[in-house]
Design goal:
The complex is a heterodimer. In chain A, β3, α4 and β4 form a beta-alpha-beta unit. Chain A is α/β, with parallel strands linked by helices. Chain A has eleven helices and five strands; from the N terminus they run αβαβαβαβαβαααααα. In chain A, α6 crosses α7 and α10 packs across α11. The two termini of chain A are about 50 Å apart. By secondary structure, chain B is an alpha+beta fold. In chain B, about 25% of the residues lie in helices and about 40% in strands. Chain B is built from six helices and 13 strands. In chain B, the strands form three sheets. In chain B, strands 6, 8, 10, 11, 12 and 13 form a six-stranded mixed sheet that branches. In chain B, α4 packs across α5 and α5 packs antiparallel against α6. Classes of the chains: A alpha/beta, B alpha+beta.
């Protein structure tokens, strides 16, 4: 079972087109950046077709000999396969880029372009909330997490979106013991040199002051909460170059 | 001898027939002539009627080559029996696909409306062109190379990628046939028109030919005449 979900109107059109031609002997290709959901999309529609990657040309050649209808992923890597072998097949393909425009143009009846995630605003929200739910479930977290609070990374489409959400969820669900353990692991891995005390103290001091200022908005109040002199706090704010 | 109503025969006659009065007004035209008038001005036909009319009452047939887009005629007959009415009848030059043998192994019975819808969906996923569609859902399934024909449709639509609006019409051509492999086939016409100018594309004619389809690209339209291969 392949899960694919999208709220994007362009992708709904692609799904419609693929479903309309599913029973016909036509070749289709979906072209788009890595991690835009191409493989999941076609696998969800053509569930019964064998799937091979064009990265391994020997396996691909065998599959082409064996099947009249097949899915070929990573189509941009295809090489040493004569067009005549592919012309009489029904090929459903995915490609991260177009390396040979005329070859693709000749072979495929339907050429779909899947937009990158940054251009699919409906999907950023839809997938973002799905990943939050998934992350909370997998990490057994109850805390409420709001997508708008997360700095999303869309550079690598769903992959980086998912990573940024998982990291956020993980970071915002740690308790004191988790933090200590993380710090221990980090320090153990990086401790070195002749100024380590000062360097690793920064890891503690900087978020302490930043969080305090965000919460109390006043250096006077924060110095009293922290139990340190106001001048000492001022000095540390300057030292860490904190925007106060 | 009892009266026979010849008009119904002329109505459905494959050859265009037009009856004018002496002011060039059309008094009658059959179905085929109606189609022809979509391609040529009435005045041009009237002028030709007068030009090829017999010198006195009677009928005159002239052999000549007439071409109006996809229409080709090899002769016309002009006749009149009074001063008030004159008619012209056109004789189709048969459409014959020369030296083509159909490889039926690659042809699959297909619902053309399904392929058209899939191509419209693909077009709409990429372009913002507004679209009007007039199709005949009763067109029967016919045999076609599905992949090649879909490619032809994709390339046909791409000609209109930069236009603001297009009209798509798919219809069965009443009274027109094409001869392929010595067999007569009905014709389906797919037209895409726009008010914007389009560029020509030689590849379309090549792919169309491989599918036994006649293609015509004009300033702002594309017409495909598709043989209804059933057996």
């Amino acid at each position: 079972m392949h899960n694919f979900t999208s709220k994007s109107s362009t992708i709904q059109d692609i799904i419609k087109g693929l479903n309309l031609t599913k029973s016909l002997f036509v070749s289709s290709i979906i072209i788009g950046e890595p991690h835009t959901g191409k493989k999941a999309l076609i696998s969800s529609i053509f569930e019964d077709l064998p799937l091979v990657s064009a990265k391994d040309s020997d396996i691909l050649k065998d599959a082409i000999k064996q099947y009249d209808e097949l899915i070929i992923t990573d189509f941009e890597h295809i090489q040493n396969i004569p067009t005549s072998l592919l012309e009489d097949k029904k090929i459903i393909a995915t490609a991260n880029s177009i390396t040979n425009q005329s070859f693709i143009d000749n072979l495929f009846a339907f050429i779909y372009h899947i937009p990158p995630l940054k251009d699919r605003t409906e999907d950023i929200k839809h997938l973002g909330n799905l990943y939050i739910k998934e992350a909370k479930n997998k990490l057994m977290i109850q805390k409420e997490i709001n997508l708008d609070d997360i700095s999303l990374n869309l550079d690598q489409n769903t992959k980086s979106l998912q990573a940024s959400i998982y990291k956020y969820v993980l970071k915002h669900s740690m308790d004191k013991e988790d933090l200590k353990e993380s710090l221990y692991n980090y320090i153990y891995e990086h401790i070195d040199g002749n100024n380590a005390y000062k360097e690793f103290l920064d890891i503690y001091e900087e978020p302490l002051i930043k969080a305090g200022l965000s919460k109390y908005h006043s250096q006077l109040k924060l110095s009293s909460i922290l139990g340190i002199n106001r001048n000492t706090l001022r000095k540390k704010i300057l030292e860490h170059n904190i925007d106060a | 001898m009892r009266d026979i109503n010849f008009q119904s025969f002329i109505d459905s006659d494959h050859s265009p027939f037009i009856l004018f009065d002496n002011t060039s007004k059309i008094l009658y035209l059959n179905n085929s002539a109606e189609i022809l008038l979509g391609y040529v001005e009435k005045k041009e036909l009237y002028d030709m009627t007068l030009q090829y009319a017999p010198q006195s009452f009677g009928v005159k047939t002239t052999t000549l080559n007439l071409n109006y887009e996809n229409f080709s005629f090899y002769a016309i007959t002009v006749g009149y029996e009074c001063e008030e009415q004159i008619y012209i009848r056109f004789y189709h030059a048969p459409k014959v696909k020369q030296n083509i043998t159909i490889d039926k192994n690659k042809l699959i019975l297909t619902d053309i409306n399904l392929l058209l819808e899939a191509n419209i969906t693909l077009f709409q996923s990429r372009y913002t062109t507004a679209l009007k569609l007039l199709t005949d859902p009763d067109i029967p399934e016919f045999k076609i190379d599905q992949n090649k024909f879909s490619k032809l449709l994709r390339k046909s639509f791409e000609l209109f990628a930069k236009t603001k609006e297009i009209s798509i019409t798919l219809k069965f051509l009443v009274g027109e046939h094409i001869i392929i492999d010595n067999k007569r086939y009905h014709i389906i016409r797919l037209s895409i028109t726009s008010s914007d100018t389009i560029e020509s594309n030689d590849e379309i004619a090549t792919i169309a030919k491989e599918c036994f389809i006649s293609s015509l690209i004009q300033k702002n339209s594309l017409t495909l005449e598709i043989p209804l291969l059933i057996d």
